[in-house]
Design a protein that fits this description.
The structure is a single chain. By secondary structure, the protein is mainly α. It has one domain: Eukaryotic RPB6 RNA polymerase subunit (Alpha-Beta Complex), CATH 3.90.940.10. It contains 2 helices and no strands. The longest helix has 16 residues, at 5-20. The model has no long low-confidence stretch (mean pLDDT 95).
């Protein structure tokens, strides 16, 4: 599924907040990634974030 830039921003932002609040990381990330936003972007690029988008018809 191709996401719009707004959907992508919402997914990454929500996941970054989860990580900042102590949620477990879903994949192995390089040690240099310590910022929750960077980790969320990395997870998004790997396709492991369990957030779905439902669009109105």
């Amino acid at each position: 599924m191709e996401y719009t830039r707004f959907e992508k921003a919402r997914i990454i932002g929500a996941r970054a907040l989860q990580i900042a609040m102590g949620a477990p990381i879903l994949t192995h990330v390089p040690e240099e990634l310590i910022d929750p936003l960077d980790i969320a972007i990395y997870e998004f690029e790997k396709g492991v974030i369990p957030i779905t988008v439902r669009r109105a018809k």
